Amino acid sequence: MPPKFSAPVKCIYDASDLDNFKNSIAYERLHNIINLVVQKVKGTSLPKNVFDISLVTRSATISNSSTNDDNQFNHYNESTRTVLRILKSFNTLIDDTPPLQGPRRFGNLARRDWQEKVEACAGSHLQLITSDKGLQEELSYYLLNAFGSSVRLDYGSGHELSFVAFIGGLIEFKILDIASIEAVELLTIFAKYFDLARRLILVYSLEPAGSHGVWGLDDHFHFAYIIGAAQFNVDGTSKQYIPPVQQVLSSLTIEDFKETNFYVNAIAFIFKIKSGPFNEHSPILHDIHKTVSLWSKVLSGLLKMYEIEVLGKFPVVQHFWFGAGLYPWVDAESRKMLPVKDIQESKQEENDTLPGLINGFSGQKTTSTTISLTGAPWARQSSRTGPSPVPRRGPQPPVNRTQEPRKR
Question: Where is the composition biased (Pro residues) (predicted)?
Fold first, then answer.
């Protein structure tokens, strides 16, 4: 029988729902898509001129979407080109929706106008992908939630997860046939997605969603680093040059690989939007490049950290909703529906727990005990006995005021 689809609904109302989530078919499928993507792109470089380098280069003016040359993708699979056209059209809408003028620390309200335009055209775009109305409805939820919140005017790893889920839905129903498409096609789709997300962050000064400050891997992204670490995992017969882990933060390595590797591209974005010593504003990433020597260890550590800090964190996955076809709220073993809390009771619980800035103004009060300080899987136990004093810094607009990383 063909799968039944339904409009995705909220099922995670508090931290106690995480156990049910981990037992669900949805959780199992998210793991499957992550593993499929990692295995597909291992050892593969992204061709040059795919990433928009203006988005990760200090003092560079952000490029207009029309500067991208779509002809370079003419040899790609038709379904790949359709997804790329959707992302391109969303990017073009940024050109048509300039940020509102006037002083503002973060979260330009024009971002909401952009979202309205995207929602207005998303349906017609998805009709090009599939004629099944139910599948369109479920896919649209994950696609429209992949670019940040128009309410909170923020972007974070939960939105990144939503795009992973969207791609997973395309793969699940063989709209994107993982066995037949080339690895560079999958990389190109993700590259254009990350370009769009970064452009939204920069143009509309989006706040990090649920950021743990310096004690998170990155203010906005996590899966991008997983893709990049997979790219640097090559087999023993490859003649491809892979930079040593401990050299990735050098300016020469960043310049050489920011066009072709997702990990380095993400590092370059940090240098664009943040100033000061890297070990102070990004200590988790700094630890990686001081304590790890193998890219295989980096990849396995990032996957374990993703399990804890993204899939295992209530402030992140509370915004992940569940439909019957793609990501069912169904027990993976018994195939029975998992319990869902009474909505009124859950709303009362949310009202009793005043949210705070770090936890994204929803779901959990920000206190010294609710901020996650999960150590990186690769970190040496002796490297620090406790968290160092966190530098005082309020939310800053992502402006071009950084310095280049020092050459080593």
Answer: 388-398
Q: Rounded CA gap, 53 and 269, in Å?
A: 9
In a domain, 392, yes or no: no
Per the structure, the complete domain to which residue 232 belongs is given by 7-59+72-320
> Is 255 inside a domain boundary?
yes
3-state DSSP call for residue 133?
A: helix
Neighbouring C-beta atoms of residue 88, cutoff 10 Å: 18
Beta-bridged to residue 155, according to DSSP, are: 208
List the single range of 22-31, 78-87, 185-194, 387-396 with lowest mean pLDDT.
387-396
Which of 83, 218, 193, 207 is closest to 150 using CA atoms? 207
Q: How far apart are CA 47 and CA 119, in angstroms?
A: 31
- What are φ and ψ of residue 256, in 5° steps? -75, -30
Phi, psi angles (nearest 5°) of residue 364: -155, 135
The secondary structure element, H or E, covering residue 154 is strand 154-155
Overall domain count for the chain: 1
Is the residue at 370 inside a domain?
no
Q: What is the pLDDT at residue 343? A: 65
On whether residue 249 sits in a domain, the answer given is yes
The CATH number covering residue 116 comes to 1.20.120.1150
Question: pLDDT per residue over 156-183, tens digit each?
Answer: 999 999 999 999 999 999 999 999 999 9
Pairwise CA distance, residues 122 & 105, whole Å: 30
Q: Which among 263, 87, 267 is positioned nearest to 188, based on CA atoms?
A: 87
